[in-house]
Amino acid sequence: MLHYLSLKDIDSLPNWVQEARSLKPNPKLYKDLGKDKTLGLLFFNNSLRTRLSTQKAAMNLGMDVIVMNFGSEGWALEYGDGTIMDQGSSEHVKEAALVISQYCDIIGIRAFASLTNKEEDESEIVLESFKKYATVPILNMESSVGHPLQALADAITLAENNTKSKPKIVLSWAPHPRALPHAVANSFVEMMQRQEADFVITHPKGYELSEKITGGCTIEYDQKKALEDADFVYVKNWSSYRDYGKVTNKDTNWTIDLKKLGQAKFMHCLPVRRNVIVADEVLDSAQSLVIEQANNRTYAAQIVLKKILESLS
Ligand code: CP
């Protein structure tokens, strides 16, 4: 039984990217694989792309899909062992995971970081609890620490647009008014560590990601220098990791415009705040790959579901 919790669950990134790309001309080729199988999608947080692309991918594989906005419609779950449940939680994850396992053959979970408790976030308490107590495979649809479906879609998009043997790829922080998690940036870094590329991360001082993720990567605090001769610029905001979950910088000098982008292709996972993260002129230009990235979410989800379904048979 294969779970998809992080990029570590991919045995060969180039092979998975190639297989995902090969699905595109005939997405329903494996429509019998998921026959009589049910995918349950549990959302503890909002979504557009993840919800619709994962549902579409499952439908392409012939699966039935049930979706629950767990964060707003489910009982508040308890995760602690031996807790006297006389406070806010109504149901323990033990029962919830076992019950849902009876209804679904695969369970997808979206549960963002709290950004208030680093230790608890890094323990991936929601994802790991479902993995522990469910009897079916678990699919990470963005957890506290990672967004491996997004990173796989980004790898597909890079493969489709890259023309060089060793492109220069820059991950740039950009400002945002709210505190955002580190998951997308983390998984992008982990994906880049599996690529042949000149990879550079740029952000203001104090916005270093976890060293457990970025160990060995080049970090350049001067954004202009980092962007020189870039082929791809992946832009993302994240809150401070050191001053955990805090917004300590909203410097709009880090916003990406066409002058900064140069000849590079622009990437972002979406949703994106126009003229905060990136100027209209970039998103509306032919250099933007954001719509392609969103399209590739379907094929990333489909190859992952295909692998999981194959592991069940
Ligand atoms: N990129 C991404 O995961 O989009 P959603 O949050 O809309 O699912």
TrEMBL record:
Pathway the protein acts in: Amino-acid biosynthesis; L-arginine biosynthesis
Alphabetized InterPro entries for the sequence: ArgF'-like (IPR043696), Asp/Orn_carbamoyltranf_P-bd (IPR006132), Asp/Orn_carbamoylTrfase (IPR006130), Asp/Orn_carbamoylTrfase_sf (IPR036901), Asp_carbamoyltransf_Asp/Orn-bd (IPR006131)
Pfam families linked to this entry: OTCace (PF00185), OTCace_N (PF02729)
Residues noted as binding carbamoyl phosphate in the record, renumbered to the chain: 47-50, 75, 110, 147-150, 269-270, 297
Presence of keyword Transferase: yes
Binding site for N(2)-succinyl-L-ornithine: 142, 176, 236, 273
Physiological role: Catalyzes the transfer of the carbamoyl group from carbamoyl phosphate to the delta-amino group of N(2)-succinyl-L-ornithine to produce N(2)-succinyl-L-citrulline. Is essential for arginine biosynthesis.
Oligomer status and interactors: Homotrimer.
Protein's UniProt name: N-succinylornithine carbamoyltransferase
Provenance organism: Sediminicola arcticus
Gene name of this polypeptide: argF'
